[in-house]
């Protein structure tokens, strides 16, 4: 069953996942997101909120999903650093401040044999708050998949 929410073109469709497309996103980026959402049950995530940011450890029990996860995380951090917003239809508004104030975020990425560890810090209290919020949103998506996105969008946070 398809039903509309969001804006025009943001139809709910678990097969093609059109909400994962973006005005400035590549087909490969959208395909990585779709793979991760379809296989969210393979993901596990731990987040530590730091006084000046976050430390996250994310894993997947599926090597293909893990590869997509690493590519997505590295790619998105690179996009933030370049202030190159992909404008994904379902993207959280929490990301807006990252693209606006990218120079205020320090990011470290460590890919291990079974995880990707990200430490992001800032001296800007608004960026720190956004890092905490975004980390919680990502954890919710890793735990509940598209249901988490749908609820956020339906609550008017999108």
Structure write-up:
It is globular and about 40 Å long. It has one domain. It is 44% helix and 18% strand. The N terminus is likely disordered. The chain contains 5 helices and 4 strands. The longest helix is centred in the C-terminal third of the chain and has 20 residues. The two termini are 22 Å apart. A hairpin with a 4-residue loop joins strand 3 and strand 4. Helix 1 packs across helix 2 and helix 4 packs across helix 5. The protein is of the alpha+beta class and 158 residues long. It comes from Maritimibacter dapengensis. This is DUF760 domain-containing protein.
Summary keywords:
158 residues; 5 helices; alpha+beta; globular; four-stranded antiparallel sheet; DUF760 domain-containing protein
Summarize the structure.
With 158 residues, the protein is α+β, with helices and mostly antiparallel strands. It contains 5 helices and 4 strands; from the N terminus they run αββααββαα.
- How many strands? 4
Enumerate the spans where pLDDT stays under 50 for 5 or more consecutive residues: 1-12
The biggest sheet, with number of strands, parallel, antiparallel or mixed sense and barrel status, is: 4 strands, antiparallel
Q: With helices defined by DSSP (H or I, 4 residues minimum), what is the helix count? A: 5
The share of residues in helices is: 40-55%
| Rounded radius of gyration (Å) | 15 Å
N- to C-terminal distance: 22 Å
Spatially, the strands of the biggest sheet line up as 1-2-4-3
**What general form does the structure show?**
globular
Please indicate the count of domains.
1
Order of helices and strands: HEEHHEEHH
What structural category characterises the helix and strand content?
alpha+beta
The whole-number mean of residue pLDDT values reads 89
Question: Beta fraction of the residues?
Answer: 15-25%
Oligomeric state of this protein: single chain
């Amino acid at each position: 069953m398809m039903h509309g929410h969001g804006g025009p073109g943001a139809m709910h469709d678990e097969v093609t996942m059109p909400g994962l497309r973006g005005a400035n996103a590549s087909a490969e980026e959208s395909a990585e997101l779709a793979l991760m959402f379809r296989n969210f049950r393979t993901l596990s995530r731990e987040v530590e909120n730091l006084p000046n940011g976050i430390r996250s450890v994310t894993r997947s029990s599926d090597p293909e999903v893990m590869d997509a996860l690493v590519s997505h995380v590295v790619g998105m951090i690179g996009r933030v650093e370049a202030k190159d917003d992909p404008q994904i239809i379902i993207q959280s508004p929490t990301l807006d401040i990252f693209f606006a104030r990218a120079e205020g975020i320090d990011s470290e990425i460590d890919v291990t044999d079974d995880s990707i560890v990200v430490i992001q810090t800032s001296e800007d209290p608004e960026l720190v708050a956004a890092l905490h919020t975004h980390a919680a949103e990502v954890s919710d998506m890793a735990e509940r998949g598209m249901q988490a996105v749908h609820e956020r969008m339906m609550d008017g946070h999108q």
